[in-house]
Amino acid sequence: MRDALVAAAFRLFLERGYEQTTVDDIVALAGVGRRSFFRYFPSKEDVVFPDHERCLADMTAFLAAGPDDDEPVRRVCDAARLVLRMYAENPTFSVQRYRLTKRVPGLRAYELSVVWRYERALAEYLRGRFAGRRDGTLRADVIAAAVVAAHNNALRSWLRSDGRDDAEAAVDHALGHVQAAFGAAPVPAALPPADGDPEDVVVVVARRGAPLWRVVQELESVRGRG
Amino acid sequence: MRDALVAAAFRLFLERGYEQTTVDDIVALAGVGRRSFFRYFPSKEDVVFPDHERCLADMTAFLAAGPDDDEPVRRVCDAARLVLRMYAENPTFSVQRYRLTKRVPGLRAYELSVVWRYERALAEYLRGRFAGRRDGTLRADVIAAAVVAAHNNALRSWLRSDGRDDAEAAVDHALGHVQAAFGAAPVPAALPPADGDPEDVVVVVARRGAPLWRVVQELESVRGRG
Questions:
Q1: Which residues bind DNA (chains A, B) (predicted)?
Q2: A170: which chain B residues are within 8 Å (Cβ-Cβ)?
């Protein structure tokens, strides 16, 4: 029933346009009553994004289920992958919706509020993990925003490819940037311990003509000594 | 006239509530006609955020006016400070609006769309600056999102302090995090003599925790300038 309503709605949105389609049109095509529609969807906008509520719940559950010693930035990146997977499961539908959303300002606004809720879910998780640390909420908010931006950059590239590119590879690449900037993964030896001095600096002096690899080698060995 | 409309609107929003106040109520209190209202504000929501259009225009102009060799991350951080200044110019009004916006879902949605436009303005600028560089649009989007998140974290702290804390200090601190993560900040000291002495040296100063790829990237750009 739910799937039939979504299918009927999208058929009409594509044929007539979103604004020109009423809930009555949708239920007539699906062969059900208005009450059935509103049992599943609070409004016409919600039928455009039928899976976000479930995905938000999945994300929250995923974050809550993680072990306490899991690296927090990797964890939120993995949580963001759940959203991508939802889109990638159904490329045709996702691409159609992308085109529709671009044309209808009301749907763009709806989408922004959904994106905001994902971002808050990630930020709340990180705030918990960073609780008691200096600038914990600031770091949590910044990392959550960076993860969402990277995810959406990859998602939009994939949607613009009409779902033909490799979505998982694109998002892995994009989230790799965020992990490199904020996570522990790329430079594990160089990270200060949680209680370490944040002002700890490394100074490398190199001739301008020195080969880059040698400077990097030197840099790594200096950083590793921390 | 514009200011009088904003003052009348806020008086009524605070007395009766936002939803219970009509545009007719506002123009009656301000002693002007409906047409005057709509000359300044496309809708009732717009009167709640009367300065964002000007601030967005200021931000775009500020970014466009920057010298080509300005460090891009610092530039977008400075652009974000324009928004904070707009809030800090009028603490009482900003705090009232913050409380109002928290209570009215429609205003929250409006605010999200405004935040999105600021973020896009910063991202577009960075995309231009990073054009032709690998992952330029990805980096642009991630940095713009991080700047906005840091700014908003500081702004919300200030609003929650009822405008009593030092707004500029809070946002400087927050944006400092973003510059540390993404900007050229970790490598402040490069010593390239003007005559290109083959023995000249490069001094790299990096936080121990800075991601290696970013140090290398900066190192490359410093060496390239020789």
A1: 22-41
A2: none
Query: Residue B36 in contact with residue B1, Cβ under 8 Å?
Result: yes
Q: Is the pLDDT of residue A207 over 50?
A: yes
- Whether residue B144 is found in the same domain as residue B195: no
Minimal CA separation from A201 to chain B, in Å: 4
pLDDT tens string A71-128: 999 999 999 999 999 999 999 999 999 999 999 988 998 999 999 999 999 999 999 9
Which regions in chain B score pLDDT beneath 50?
A: 185-199, 225-226
* Burial environment of residue A31 by CB neighbours within 10 A (0 to 12, 13 to 18, 19 or more): exposed
Q: What is the ipTM of this complex?
A: 0.80
Task: Report helix, strand or coil for A202.
Answer: strand
Q: Chain B closest CA to A205's CA: distance in Å?
A: 5
Interface touch A177/B141, C-beta < 8 Å: no
Residues A195 and A106 in one domain: no
Helices (H), A44-132: 44-48, 52-64, 72-88, 91-103, 105-129
CA dist A220 and A217 (Å) reads 5
The total of structural domains in chain B comes to 3
Question: Cβ contacts (< 8 Å) between B214 and chain A: which residues?
Answer: 180-181
Q: Do A141 and B153 touch (CB under 8 A)?
A: yes
Average predicted confidence (pLDDT) for chain A: 86
Determine the structural domain holding residue A36 and report its residue range. Answer: 1-45
On the question of pLDDT at A198 being above 50, the answer is no
CB contact under 8 A, A207 and B207: no
